[in-house]
């Protein structure tokens, strides 16, 4: 009754257009609280926290954009955004349908975090350069060693061919019996004793008996 009978100037002064920033934020929070209670019920504590944080974030963004040197306000804004992201992550795991409804009502977007993310610092860049240099050096040494082995293999093949040719010449020169020579080599190979390879079960049995193998 008093508000309806008040003059137009008083009505304008009491409206939101002339309210302070804190009063506007309180009014937005009350509207948001009524909306969340109507949609999700009185037990929607996590949804209510997300909604209140969203109101605070939207109220702080113009201030941070206008006063970029206000580091304290910027850190508070980042903290609230990270807190809201954490709550949305839990809500997404619990009830995906309510999570999507809340995003739609608040008109916000949830971006899935990458599998791995980290801040690229000077220390990280230095370690990356050192690792790349060490890896290049390792690959260079491996290539040099592989080339060395290939050269030695070629030398060994040439030496083997020359040795076989020399053996053939000696057999023909001294008129040796090739079959007897090959049988002697075969007996020498067969007479060599190779160590026995035990199975896992045999190793366990030997360990129980206290034998060293």
TrEMBL record:
It is found in: Mitochondrion. GO terms for molecular function: RNA binding; structural constituent of ribosome. SUPFAM superfamilies: S15/NS1 RNA-binding domain (SSF47060). It comes from the Eukaryota. One of its GO terms (cellular component) is mitochondrial small ribosomal subunit. Keywords: Mitochondrion, Ribonucleoprotein, Ribosomal protein, Transit peptide. Gene3D superfamilies: S15/NS1, RNA-binding. GO terms for biological process: mitochondrial translation. Its main location: mitochondrion. Transmembrane segments: none annotated. InterPro entries: Ribosomal_uS15 (IPR000589), uS15_NS1_RNA-bd_sf (IPR009068), uS15_ribosomal (IPR052137). Belongs to the universal ribosomal protein uS15 family. This is Small ribosomal subunit protein uS15m.
């Amino acid at each position: 009754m008093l508000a309806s009978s008040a003059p137009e100037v008083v009505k304008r002064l009491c409206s939101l257009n002339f309210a302070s920033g804190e009063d506007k934020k309180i009014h937005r929070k009350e509207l948001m609280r009524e909306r969340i209670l109507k949609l999700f019920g009185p037990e929607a504590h996590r949804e209510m926290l997300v909604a209140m944080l969203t109101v605070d974030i939207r109220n702080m963004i113009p201030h941070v954009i206008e006063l970029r040197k206000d580091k304290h306000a910027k850190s508070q804004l980042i903290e609230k955004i990270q807190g809201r992201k954490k709550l949305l992550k839990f809500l997404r795991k619990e009830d995906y349908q309510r999570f999507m409804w809340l995003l739609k009502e608040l008109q916000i977007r949830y971006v899935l975090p990458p599998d791995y993310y980290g801040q690229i610092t000077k220390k990280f860049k230095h370690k990356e350069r050192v690792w790349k240099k060490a890896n290049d050096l390792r690959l260079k040494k491996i290539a040099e060693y592989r080339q060395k082995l290939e050269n030695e293999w070629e030398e060994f093949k040439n030496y083997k061919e020359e040795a076989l040719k020399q053996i053939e010449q000696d057999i023909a020169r001294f008129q040796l019996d090739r079959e007897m020579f090959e049988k002697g080599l075969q007996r020498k190979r067969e007479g060599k004793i190779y160590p026995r390879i035990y199975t896992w079960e045999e190793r366990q049995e030997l360990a129980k008996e206290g034998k060293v193998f």
